[in-house]
Amino acid sequence: MSAETAQPGGPLTEIDRLIHEPARYNIMALLYVVDRAEFLFVQNQTGLTAGNLSAHTAKLEAAGYVEVTKRFVGKKPKTLLALSSQGRTAFEQYRKKMAQVLSEMPSPPDHSARTDEV
């Protein structure tokens, strides 16, 4: 587990911080529902710039969560992104842990019974 995957204290202690970052979450969530996707497709779906997507993908690749494959179709370069089996497992664990954290949150107080005016 890297320093970026866990933070001490609080109910989110076991949440994978690498995935929890919004841009990386969006990348992982998209790749979770497809076998693989072209870089440009992921860029368009997430709304990230090419540079941001590249930087976040590099972090996910370094963690072993995403596999990056580069090839040529004719003379055009294509970059394909896919979740690795480790990435798929990590994302499934992230989803389960987030569902647990959210289900264990206390309910807010009932303010509908308040009679005092603000």
Task: For the structure shown, list the relevant keywords.
118 residues; elongated; single chain; 47% helix
Describe this protein's structure.
The protein is α+β, with helices and mostly antiparallel strands and 118 residues long. It has a domain at 17-98: Orthogonal Bundle (Arc Repressor Mutant, subunit A). Helices cover 47% and strands 15% of the residues. The chain is built from 5 helices and 3 strands, in the order ααβααββα. It has helices at 17-20, 22-32, 39-46, 50-62, 85-103, and strands at 37-38, 66-73, 76-83. Strands 1-3-2 form a 3-stranded antiparallel sheet. It is elongated. The termini are far apart. 18% of the residues are buried. The model is unreliable at 1-7 (pLDDT under 50).
How do the helices and strands line up, and which of them pair or pack?
Elements lengths: L16 H4 L1 H11 L4 E2 H8 L3 H13 L3 E8 L2 E8 L1 H19 L15
Antiparallel strand pairs: 1-3, 2-3
Shape-level CATH architecture of the domain at 17-98 = Orthogonal Bundle
| Major sheet characteristics | 3 strands, antiparallel
Beta-strand content: 15-25%
| Derived structural class | alpha+beta
Question: What is the share of helical residues?
Answer: 40-55%
- Number of contiguous helices: 5
- The counted number of beta strands is 3
